[in-house]
Each structure stands twice: as C-alpha cells, then as structure tokens.
Design brief:
The longest helix has 14 residues. Strands 2-1-3-4-9-8-7-5-6 form a nine-stranded mixed β-sheet. The chain is globular, with a radius of gyration of 19 Å. Helices cover 23% and strands 28% of the residues. Helix 5 packs across helix 6. The chain contains seven helices and nine strands. It has 257 residues and is α/β, with parallel strands linked by helices. The protein has a single domain, classed as Rossmann fold (3-Layer(aba) Sandwich), CATH 3.40.50.
Length: 257
C-alpha cells in the first residue's frame, strides 16, 4: 500500500491579518484553504508553515519529511532568510518537489532555482482569464477540461523571465489580449519544480475546484521519489561558495596532459 504524499504548504500569512477583503475570502489563511482544497484530490499528509514562525516554520528535519513544498508569497519575499532559501534549494536538488503559486515567481527560493529574475508584466485589471490546457494527457492535467475560466483575475503577461520550461502545460489569455505561460515544469537535480499562476489573494481563486485539482495533481506528480544527499557528493561545495566565472582558472590546452 502506497504512503500518503507528505505536503508542506508555506504561506506568508500577512494579507489575511491586515486586509479585510482577503480575510473574508480566506478567514483561516490561504494555507488552510489550500490544505482543505487539495485534500479532495489525493492521499496527502499535510502540514503548514508561515513566515513569522521561527525559521519561517521550515527546518532541515521538516523538509526531509516533506515530499512536496507548496509556496505562496507576495508582500514579504525579502523577509525570507538566505539560510532558508539555500536550504529549500538544497532539498529540491536532493529530491523534494517544489510548487510555486502565483506571486511566488518572485520568491527567493523560486528565483534561486530558476537562476533568473523571474520578472513579468502585470496589472490588477479585474479581467477574465482563460487557461488553455495544452497537454491533456499529462498527469498534472488529469481531470482538467480543455480550458478553465476565472471570472476575475490579476493579469500576468509575457515576457516571463524564466528559463525555457521542460514542459508548458497551460497558457493563459486575458481580456486585454495578453498571454502567459501559466503552468510550467522543470527538473532541478533530483527534484521537480512546478509554477502555477492563478491565485491573487483578493479573489476566491483557491475556492475554484479546477485550480485546486491542478495544484493537487502537481503535488502528486512532483512528490519526492529519492532522497540523495548532495552534500555527500565528492568535491561538494555549497552553491554560495562556488567562485564566479571570472575567478576560475581556465586551463591552457597544454596543461591538460
């Protein structure tokens, strides 16, 4: 019998405390709504963590017991410590899955995993969004129709400054004419990374069954399958200690014998 997928859902948990509109939509926090919502679509053992907990609620032992880390952040990306950022990246390289939601494109762990600025065009336009399903045979698209409509959404538009995805599963169209790569996947070391665009905090998007199912499917697909310590690798160096390219010694062809 297979074991439940161990999911940790991380949320800043700031908007819900400070914004009446957000509090009415997510009275117990976005993290609890996600936990309740994805539970309908898979066998999960779910924990939550938030920004203002000690170590942001994330430690090495907890992440070792996490198959998939779901990340929602927006207003306080820079409050996440560099130590936690490096730890999350290392755990992904060792096999943990990472699901970045909506404005987590600017989160420190996602930027570090991508190696780019992850910038994009955006506006709060109260527009309809239509997400087109490009790969209906993919496990993350299981049970998802040809397209999903969100009646009111924040617009994200191209160019999205990310490395070319391994897979693009959904592309969004907005009433202003913009398009956006909205569900993308990458392999990173022994782990998998998924970006899922929908989820602006002032809209009830995480009450929409299709969106919750996409997140649940992504968590099942990205779950940890191995736990391989990269620290034990021969000649391992922490990424922050790797010298810049201009400091590296470039061998002369005559030196290679």
């Amino acid at each position: 019998m297979s074991q439940p997928v161990r999911v940790t859902i991380w949320n800043e948990f700031l908007h819900e405390l400070n914004n009446d509109t957000v509090r009415k939509i997510y009275p117990h926090g976005i993290h609890h709504r996600l936990a309740e919502g994805i539970a309908d679509y898979g066998d999960f053992d779910i924990r939550t963590a938030t920004l203002r907990e000690p170590a942001h609620g994330l430690g090495s032992e907890l992440l070792d017991e996490t198959d998939v880390l779901i990340w929602w952040g927006h207003a306080a990306h820079q409050e996440v410590s560099d130590e936690t950022t490096a730890l999350v990246q290392q755990k992904v390289l060792e096999g943990m899955g990472f699901v970045a939601l909506h404005s987590a494109h600017f989160s420190k762990p996602f930027q570090r995993l991508m190696g780019t600025n992850c910038s994009l065009k955006w506006r709060e336009a109260d527009e309809k969004e239509r997400l087109w399903n490009l790969q209906p045979n993919h496990p993350i698209m299981d049970g998802i129709p040809e397209y999903v409509e969100i009646e009111r959404a924040e617009m994200y538009g191209e160019r999205f400054d990310i490395p070319t995805p391994d897979e693009i599963l959904m592309i969004s169209w907005f009433q202003g004419g913009e398009v956006f790569r909205s569900v993308c996947t990458w392999d990173r070391g022994n782990g998998k990374v998924i970006y899922i665009r929908p989820g602006h905090e002032v809209y009830p998007i995480y009450h929409q069954p299709e969106i919750l199912r996409i997140i649940a499917n992504a968590s099942l697909w990205a779950r940890r399958r191995v736990s391989i310590s990269m620290v034990d690798a021969i000649n391992f160096q922490p990424l922050e200690s790797v010298p810049n390219v201009e400091k590296r010694h470039i061998l002369d062809p005559a030196d290679t014998d």
